[in-house]
Each structure stands twice: as C-alpha cells, then as structure tokens.
Amino acid sequence: MAEDNNQTTGGAAGAASGEQQNQPQFSLQRIYVKDISFESPNSPAVFQQPFKPKVGLDLNTTSSQVGEGLYEVVIKVTAQVSHSETGNTSFLAEIEQAGLFRIANIEGEQLEHTLGAFCPNLLFPYARECIDNLVNRGGFPPLMLAPVNFEAMYAQKKQREAQASETTQ
C-alpha cells in the first residue's frame, strides 16, 4: 500500500510539479573564508601604551556566477585601527567571507537584489564573528562590528548607477 502513496499520476499532481519547477528557488550551499589577514606592525610597542582606538572600516560586496544556477557572493571587510593620538597603526584585519548560493528562477533586478543585499545579509554575521576572533587572537579587545544595512547599501548603489547613466546620456 505504501507504494500507492508514492506514485505520481498526471492531472493535478503533474500540474503542481510543473508549477514547482518554475517557482523561485534559493539555497545556501556553503559558507567559507576565502581570504584572511591580520597585521600588527607596531607590536609589541602598541601594547605598552593605553589603547585609544580610531577605527577605519571598509566594506565591499561582490558576486559572480560560478556555474549553472550557482553564485558566489563575497563580503570583504577591512578594519584598520590606529591610535587616536599618535596615528600609529594598532592593527589591520581583513577578511573575505564568501558563500555559495544555488539560485533558480530568479532573474533580472530580483536576482541583482538577492546577490547584492539578501546574500550579504546572510554572510555578514560570519564575517563579523571572524573579525572579532581574529582581533582577539591578535591580543586586542574584540572589534564588535555593528550590524550593516545591506538593503540601504544596495539602494545607494542603484541610485549612483542611475545618476551615472543620466550624466553619460
């Protein structure tokens, strides 16, 4: 009897199967560190003075198609911390946190939005944890990066692109 429950016949079940094939599909395949770097060029002198940090943070995202329906999204986070009074670099931490995403039946603007905002939102907590860990292992207090609004970053990028296309016309 169990065999009867697993059989698919034509009609409504076949139509539902066809509809599922056209539905947007999204899945996270893997999260990984693509590149990582930590430098403390003024060690050990930096530990012999009060820690008064001045943080410079750079954040960038990229994406590329690496196979049929398979996309790599990379968040690059660079944190340069220097002494607020002397300007000497305390440390430079850099990470490229990446993820592989399987995406099907999502195209055009919706695909761009998924790769430019949604995927980075999923990856950022991993990048943030990795930076904190890296900085801590370098002998410094954790950096504790604030959450990032990738939706707003994506909207700003689209606005700059629109302005650039208007000025070139």
From TrEMBL:
It is found in: Cytoplasm. Pfam families: SecB. Keywords: Chaperone, Cytoplasm, Protein transport, Translocation, Transport. One of its GO terms (molecular function) is unfolded protein binding. Its main location: cytoplasm. One of the proteins required for the normal export of preproteins out of the cell cytoplasm. It is a molecular chaperone that binds to a subset of precursor proteins, maintaining them in a translocation-competent state. It also specifically binds to its receptor SecA. This is Protein-export protein SecB. It comes from Onishia taeanensis.
